[in-house]
Structures are given as C-alpha cells and as structure tokens.
Amino acid sequence: MRDSFRFDVLNKDGAARAGLITTPRGTIRTPAFMPVGTAGTVKAMHPEAVRALGADIVLANTYHLMVRPGAARIAALGGLHEFMNWPWPILTDSGGFQVMSLVKLRKLDENGVTFQSHIDGARHVLTPERAMEIQDLLGSDVEMQFDVCVRLPCADAEARRTMLLSLNWAERSKAAFVAKPGRALFGIVQGGAAETLRIESAKMLADMGFDGYALGGLAVGEPRPVMLAMIECVLPRLPCAKPRYLMGAGTPDDLMEAVSRGIDMFDCVLPTRAGRHGLAYTRAGRLNLRNARHADDPSPIDPLSSCASARTYARAYLHHLVKSGEILGMMLLTEINLAYYQDFMEDIRRAIAAGRFDDFRDAAKTAWRSGEAKAGFA
Predict the structure, then answer these.
(1) Is the pLDDT of residue 374 over 80?
(2) Is residue 123 part of a domain?
(3) Among the options 13, 141, 254, 267, which is catalytic?
C-alpha cells in the first residue's frame, strides 16, 4: 500500500486529461465524479452499491458532520471511513459552501464563522484551524481549506473582499493542516465572476503550494458561460502536475465541457437529488418519470446501461413508484443516475486515452439533442 498522495497524468487529448490519483486507501481514476455523501451517506444508497457502480471516492461535509453527530464522536468510533463503512478515499468539504447557503444562520468575521445550528440552534464556531481539526478527526484523505463562498452574481468589491479573506484562510488552513502519510490538502480559488480576481487568487494559492487546487464559488447562480470563462482563465495559472477540482458542478454537459478545459475532479448533488424527485439521466437525455406518458410504458430506462435497474425495471413501474412517493422509486432512480454518471466518466477517460475526446463530446451532445428525452441537461 502506498503511503503517499500522488497524481499522474496518463493521457492527454487537447486540454482534457486522464490520470490516476494514488492514496493509501485506493486509486482514483480521473476525470472523477465524486458522489456526495454530505452527512456520511450517499442518500438512498448502500455504500457497497455506490462502490459497485464505479465510484473511487465520495465526498462528505465538515459542517454537517460537526453539527451531527460530532467529529470527536466519529473519531472515537474509528474515523469516518469506519463509521460509514466506506474503506476507500473520502474528500471532505471544509464548510465554506455553508457560509453561503446558511447565510441567515451565521455571522462572518476575519477570524471565522459562527453558525447557529440548522438542527437545534446550538452555536458552532468554524475557523480555518477548527476546520482542519475536524477534518483530521474525521480522517479524510483529501481535506479542503476553509474558504468563503459567495452567491453569484455579486459586486466585484464583495468578490474581492471574500477572495482576500479566503486567501488568508488558505494560509491559516495550511499552517494548521495535520500532515500524515497519504493525506492531501487542496486550496480553493475564489474571486466571483471577475477574471482578475480569479487569476490573483490562483497565483497566490499556487505560490503557497497545495496538493491540489479547486475552483469554488461556481455553479452558484452564474450563467454557464461565466463558469466556463472562469475555468479558462484560472487553469493556466495552476500547477499542471496537481489535480484540479471544480466544486459543485453539475450536469453531464457541464462535466464534459470542464474536462475539455482540463478539470480532473467533480462533485454534485444533482444525480442523487434528481433521483429522489423522479428524474433519470440517460444517454438520450433527462427523463421525468412523473410524466403521464410513462404510465403505460413497459420499456426500461436504458436496455444498454451497465446498471441492472436501468435495464430491468419498466418505466411504467418507476412512474408508479414516483407518483406514489414510494422510497423504492427514489432508490432505483438514484442508482440509475449514479450509474450513468460513473459510466459517463469512464467513457470520457477512454475517449481521452484513445485521442478521440472531441468525437465523443460531439456524439454525446447529438444524442442528448436527438434522443427521446429531448430535454437535454440544462
């Protein structure tokens, strides 16, 4: 077993790249999609099933696990891997997203953030040092610096203020990071929708020297072209030998366009959340199983899918489960969606290795436009 964190780019096709992240708990194939297990669980899925679908790594959240059940409790029970029965790599988000999403329940200052728990109203203080302490207690393989995420659009002055604060917190996070064999710390580029701010953030983070770099504060309300423009201006300023992670995005088309620009890692709640709301992602587009047209349809979601549930359950039955609010419907559609995402990433990796990524991208977009779902992935 390796005792170091290592990233190797194995194949490139234009700016798109395929590689391997090696950790003591397993190898992560990139480009990688990380299912989101915010509170130590990928909703509606057994951990073993998530792994069987092709996931090499999952994401959990520092804030939510701090609030419940508590990092010290998880540490006493053997750490997060043991606690959630996931022996493979875990990345923990530091809580920076909750600085934005829980804005009505927090107070922000230069030192950190004081949260009022969304569960019981208890007071919790999260600073860069505390975020690192919690992630150390959890025992995650990839830790994220504590940062400030702002919702877009926002004024450039606010974007600059939070970007500079995030840089300060990056330095404090790095100083507080408990270095252990195979454990990594990623910095997070902020700066809103301003190219100059994003570039400044990326350059300063690169000078600090992290094990990987993330683009935060995107897929939070800005038009899609703005997200892609931020990726394009930032990546040339980040070390090419380190993994690059686009946080919180998104649709299959978002993933593919980001890969074409050089992104290696992704996470998003979309496939699991969509599954719980009756939506299925397929090679022919997105299907809404609530629609009445599925009520008498005996055909499966996708007879060519690697996922048995997508091949064997009738759309009529899935429609019935969704309309009835049955838990099984949420479970099956979540599995189908995660399978699609993992298969999609595997197809991307193979296309890059074969030097035909552009052809694959064109074919995927054509299938989404002309497929039966027709809604695409917007």
Answers:
(1) no
(2) yes
(3) 267
What is the distance between the alpha carbons of residues 257 and 228, in angstroms, rounded to a whole number? 8
Residue with tokens 């999260």: 126
Predicted confidence (pLDDT) per residue in 257-314, tens digit: 999 999 999 999 999 999 999 999 999 999 999 999 999 999 999 999 999 999 999 9
Quick one: 264 and 301 in the same domain?
Answer: no
pLDDT digits (tens, 9 = 90+) for 65-88: 999 999 999 999 999 999 999 999
Q: Is 93 a catalytic residue?
A: yes
136 assigned to active site: no
Indicate the burial class of 223 (C-beta count within 10 angstroms; 0-12, 13-18, 19 or more).
Answer: exposed
Q: Is the domain of 287 the same as that of 167?
A: no
Same-domain check for residues 228 and 150: yes
Residues 343 and 231 in one domain: no
Examine the fold and report which residue of 247, 268, 289 is the final residue of a domain before the chain moves on.
Answer: 268
Q: What's the whole-model pTM score? A: 0.96
Identify each DSSP E strand in the chain by its residue range: 6-13, 16-23, 26-30, 32-34, 58-61, 90-93, 106-108, 113-116, 123-126, 142-144, 184-189, 212-215, 244-246, 265-267, 279-282, 285-288
Q: Are residues 86 and 177 in the same domain?
A: yes
Same domain, 119 and 246: yes
Is the domain of 156 the same as that of 198?
A: yes
**Residue in 93, 136, 141, 254 annotated catalytic:** 93
115 plus 250 within the same structural domain:
yes
Is the CB of residue 17 less than 8 Å from the CB of residue 352? yes
